């Protein structure tokens, strides 16, 4: 089914335009959200990687110092010669005190190490408040992390709770196996580092919202955390699959990370891996807000555009509906009269064409009556042409009074103007008349046309006052003004005429301009039949007969549209100058 053939034009126009704008808004919003969220993720990961790399270096330095302390302590214990297998009790006690003082000095030298535990078999009792404790090896073998130390000589142990004089606290410990001078394994040395100190390194002094970070050792075991990070085995596998020491990945929606997360890690030149997990909704918060703004603005724009489109569609369909309604009233009388006349686009052409077509139909229906009427009018006009001019004046005066009595003001005005035109046109047989009278004759004709055209016709006359007392051949200007209406404004709804007179040294320049259709390419060619235009030709021939070169008439098209007529005449101060200026070389007359 073709909607363009079945749906009303206004609904189709409104619906298609609104749908197009809605789809365009959704596409634009999605592209903006995808682009901005990707750029935000790239930017965030870039800065997070730089920060994690710096933190990783600092953590590596601090934790390596703890490892070096542990190594130095184990070597000093061998130097002191402490050996729990020593058989001499006095010697064992003496070396035990030296060893305790040496280990206690480590806790005093750094604030990170809170205490040191020495695990051996059959330990001797120590002060529970002392920074160095000697504990039973049997206890440590029960710890969950102990199997790791059995495979290695040293390792880090994740967060665990230990008793202190201030109550239980969280610690991160570094464990190292101890061997005597005979290379016999006899115990385990653990340096207990404050968890808050390690977490402070992991946090990096960041203020504001708590970060979700993890510190993993080389084997992937969690050593310290801040926030509430969650890292699954799959996530860790994704990290290990990447070749870059520092990188990021976008974790999709899953049970561990909810709506997804941005996972950024750093393991540059160290045994540690620092990981930061940022919820994806925090990354794209700005993009979501931008998307909401775009949607809100877009919906508002669609709402406004919908009203505009509805108004616009009605403007397009209103003339069509009007024409359809008038077509339904045909052949009723006056069905076409009230069609709008102010349209100048395709609708105006449609109305004019339909109006002309219906007028022709009416003419065909009334052809016999119209022909009879035109015949009688022609007979009357022929009789009137033979009436004495004075009788014609009197008759026009009578018609004027009758029109006034009947309230026909327009007819009265037209009759009055026609009488004035006839008087000036005849001029008691005078060939030359003042320019003032010639302009009055032209203005009477323009006023008659103004009554016919109404506001659709504008005219102006630009004449210097001193030129009105000069003389001109009778009926020189009016034929060109009349020609503008007959030919220039034919088939047009509006018109504009301008008449101007200027003095050019010893010559008079008369310019008649109109905004009509302009001159046809063959306007100067002789016509095969009687088509009018005798008045214009008559003026041109009279000027040639009276004055010759360089005086005459020039017709040309205007660049802005229409015709411009330029009459170049000599200046005549009185009637007798015309006889002196007669150009006898012309044999036309």
Automatic annotation (TrEMBL):
Instruction: Look up the EC number in the record and give it.
Output: 2.7.13.3
Q: Which residues form the signal peptide?
A: none
Which regions span the lipid bilayer? Answer: 12-33, 290-312
Keywords of this protein's UniProt record, alphabetized? Coiled coil, Kinase, Membrane, Transferase, Transmembrane, Transmembrane helix
Specify the enzyme's EC class, one word: transferase
Molecular function per GO: protein histidine kinase activity
- Which intervals hold domain Signal transduction histidine kinase internal region? 378-457
Coiled-coil regions listed: 351-381
What would be one Pfam family of this protein? Answer: His_kinase
| The name this protein goes by in its record | Two-component system sensor histidine kinase YesM
Origin species:
Paenibacillus qinlingensis
